Amino acid sequence: MKITYTERRVNLRDNFKQRVEKKLSKFDKVFSDEAQAFVVVTVDKNSQTVEITIRDKSMVYRVEKTMPEMNDAVDKCVDALGRQLRKNKAKLEKRLRQGSLEELTAPAEDVEVEAEEDYTVVRTKKIPVKPITVDEAILEMNMVGHKFYMFTNAETGAVNVVYLRDDGRYGLLIPTSGE
Question: Tell me, what CATH number does 157's domain have?
């Protein structure tokens, strides 16, 4: 797995990078050799945030944790990533290498394992997808009180999604062919 670091208001030491590489190496059996991990470390006055995004083929796994110490944040991120993989084990094995999740997702003795369940769609809604600008889509999203809004981008003609991020800012999803 190739790891790329982004430092925001911090200079990362080699021992921190080695710690991240060691922690993420336990997922090598799960992901392909082409997998890429992006580690973003942000230091604020009283907190340090570590964000880990792993891209493998068309799958994206993302975790973000904020702690007083960046090493603790890395530990929490790796734990959360393991929980994500455990929770979706059955569905992921169909897409990833067969059996590669067995060793990684073996539940610890003190961890309660949720019963596997299928995803259930409880409501289907048809919406008109009209050509509008990104700013108009954000306005529409805010007016209906949702955290996301799908629309046809008037500039590109493609279907896009705007969404409200946890930090209160907005994001834009633009579909690609996955290459």
Answer: 3.30.505.50
